[in-house]
Design a protein that fits this description.
The structure holds two protein chains of two kinds.
Chain A: E1 5-16, E2 19-30, E3 34-38, H1 45-53, E4 60-69, E5 72-73, H2 79-89, E6 90-93, H3 97-100, H4 107-117, H5 123-136, H6 142-146, H7 155-166, E7 173-177, H8 185-201, E8 205-210, H9 213-219, E9 222-227, E10 230-236, H10 237-242, H11 247-255, E11 304-306, E12 309-311
Parallel strand pairs in A: 3-8, 3-9, 6-7, 7-8
Antiparallel strand pairs in A: 1-2, 1-4, 4-5, 9-10, 10-12, 11-12
Chain B: E1 4-15, E2 25-37, E3 42-46, H1 53-60, E4 68-73, E5 76-77, H2 83-92, E6 93-96, H3 110-122, H4 126-139, H5 156-168, E7 174-178, H6 186-203, E8 206-210, H7 214-220, E9 223-228, E10 231-237, H8 238-243, H9 248-257
Parallel strand pairs in B: 3-8, 3-9, 6-7, 7-8
Antiparallel strand pairs in B: 1-2, 1-4, 4-5, 9-10
The chains are: A alpha/beta, B alpha/beta.
């Protein structure tokens, strides 16, 4: 394994009872990368990060596969050792800026609590670090923010506080779960630019989860497309979005009304629902909704996997589109 | 005659004062906004959060009162309507909200949710409107079995279809859609947008489409109004405003809806 690999997940399966939520997922991220995970709600994007962060809900358990975080196998570790490893190396930026911060505790206490708990330094150092980080994420008057309650800050400010809080332990990897969904588009752009800036200045790797494909196309170097708990396509962001091979990726890209779409025609539709059951089937998971489904989709699917491109479709080939 | 007009609408909220005895601070949510909607027209309102677009929708729909200015339905000020006229206005202006599950009573079955407005406004019992409800369910692409279910057993997209069916059952002249596709997945969003278009062509319903997604607004709307901090900064035909924005703020909005390659 390469030294710069931060997280490696091989064949991870998570089940709630007998039902598979995510099945046979391979995932990896290296230092200084920004990697995107795309997919609709219920596709298991957040579940994958919960496996990495060891915060699976009580009724879910990892039944297969192994996760290696910062060079250490998670399977053999005690819970305490896992927590220590994760809190020191990984940071989480949540989606919902309102629920994540405690409404009755001042920002200062919320930011420094973890730092002091992990005995990384004194309270004074913690406060200094917190105000330095707030400055770094673009808050001009950290003193006022530290002494505020979450309700006194705007959504964009709260998300910046969340990012600063995730950076308190100098993580090597930030996991941003739909970090801008709750923000409007102008603030969204500012927060995304902040992520890029942190990636460049602090060399922190970022896993960015989003359902917005345009966003991932612009900000990520590699992307994974998830559907019903499976990774159906992955690869270089440009390659995946400019030349999608899997029918699901193609469908997702055609569904968004861009600024050039023909107003007189109805939008393309993707009928049906994301399947909840039998996600661990070996035949194609997307076949019931796929416009090109054929007999081969009912058999065991051999994924195409070369040149960093992974496609879970019997009709796909990894050759790049020929430019006419 | 315009279907619904808002003339010089102001809406001022009084914020609580910072200290105990201080004066409450006024906050202008809407500042001299005028708008008119013609029959069968789809008008979009875009703007960032806090720009007053939802407040405007609620005032036009009669859910809030303007601090100043008036709302006219078919030429008549809604504050002067008689009881019967007001019921007519209520029937003809319907809402679709952002979160479909929260806009329905969790203790009601879908069939009761759909029959309730007809009962309240037209005094029709469920048996009288059963066929009407079933046809509408098919129109919005839902299975009739769903009538016996509760809202929490349906998905977000299905619930939004129920909300659209509920609004359209009254044959409204105007549908106010407040961020009605924002909470949905892209695949569901596309089918709901197609449904709204189909319904608009079939029933000639006018729509006030409130959204922060300029791509969606451009696709579905004839005319678009751009709002910032409670004022209208630009309006015009949807394609023209998006293709060639005049106002600086509109330019920011259009630019931020597409992302430039960063890495």
């Amino acid at each position: 394994m390469e030294n710069n690999r931060l997280v490696q997940a091989n064949g991870v399966t998570v089940r709630a009872g007998d039902q598979a939520l995510i099945y046979n997922v391979d995932f990896h991220i290296d230092t200084n990368e920004i990697v995107g995970i795309a997919g609709e709600s219920g596709s298991g994007k957040s579940m994958l990060t919960k496996v990495i962060l060891n915060i699976l809900p009580k009724d879910c358990r990892q039944t297969d596969g192994e996760v290696v975080v910062l060079g250490q196998r998670m399977n053999g570790l005690t819970n305490q050792a896992k927590d220590k490893l994760i809190t020191s190396g990984l940071g989480l930026v949540p989606q919902n800026t309102v629920v994540y911060l405690h409404p009755l505790i001042k920002i200062q206490s919320q930011m420094i609590d973890g730092y002091i708990h992990r005995k990384l330094g004194s309270k004074k150092e913690a406060i200094e670090k917190a105000s330095g980080l707030l400055k770094e994420v673009g808050i001009d008057d950290p003193k006022r923010v530290l002494n505020s309650y979450p309700a006194q800050l705007s959504g964009g400010m709260r998300q910046r506080v969340n990012i600063a809080m995730a950076l308190m332990s100098d993580p090597k990897l930030l996991i941003a779960d739909e970090p801008t969904t709750a923000l409007d588009c102008v603030v969204q752009q500012q927060v995304l630019d902040l992520f890029v800036q942190l990636n460049q200045t602090r060399h922190v790797a970022i896993i960015m989860i989003s359902h917005n494909l345009d966003l991932l196309r612009a900000y990520c170097s590699r992307v994974y497309v998830m559907y019903a708990g499976r990774i159906v396509e992955s690869g270089n962001a440009d390659a995946v979005f400019n030349d999608p091979k899997h029918p699901y990726t193609k469908a997702l890209l055609s569904l968004i009304p861009g600024l050039e779409v023909d107003k007189t025609k109805p939008l393309a539709e993707l009928p049906g629902m994301v399947p909840e059951k039998d996600r661990d089937r070996t035949s194609c998971i997307f076949a019931p909704r796929c416009p090109k489904a054929a007999d081969a989709c009912g058999q065991t699917i051999q994924p195409v996997d070369d040149n960093d491109r992974y496609i879970l479709c019997p009709f796909a080939d990894s050759k790049p589109k020929e430019v006419a | 005659m315009s279907l619904l007009t808002g003339e010089a609408i102001f809406k001022i909220f009084m914020n609580k004062s910072k200290d105990l005895f201080g004066k409450p601070e006024p906050f202008k949510a809407l500042n001299n906004v005028s708008i008119s909607i013609e029959p069968g027209e789809i008008v979009g309102i875009v703007g960032e959060s806090g720009s007053g677009k939802s407040t405007l929708g609620e005032i036009l729909g009669g859910l809030q009162r303007p601090s100043e200015g008036k709302v006219c339905y078919q030429g008549q000020d809604i504050s002067t309507l008689t009881k019967a006229q007001y019921a007519d206005y209520r029937t003809n202006v319907q809402f679709i909200f952002q979160n479909p599950q929260e806009s329905m009573d969790p203790h009601y079955k879908i069939k009761s949710i759909l029959a309730e407005p007809l009962y309240v406004l037209h005094h029709q019992s469920y048996d009288q409107v059963k066929t009407k409800i079933e046809t509408m369910m098919q129109n919005v692409g839902l299975n009739i079995d769903n009538l016996e279910k509760y809202p929490n057993t349906l998905s977000g997209g299905q619930c939004q279809r129920v909300a659209i069916a509920r609004a359209l059952l009254l044959n409204p002249k105007l549908l106010i859609c407040d961020e009605c596709v924002s909470a949905l997945d892209v695949s569901v969003q596309a089918s709901i947008l197609n449904l709204l278009r189909k319904m608009q062509q079939e029933f000639k319903t006018a729509m006030l489409f409130i959204s922060h997604d300029i791509g969606v607004v451009r696709y579905i709307c004839d005319r678009v109004i751009v709002m910032k901090k409670g004022s209208v900064v630009e309006q015009g035909k949807a394609e023209e405003v998006v293709a060639d924005p005049n106002d600086d703020y509109t330019k920011v909005l259009v630019a931020s809806s597409t992302f430039e390659r960063q890495v």
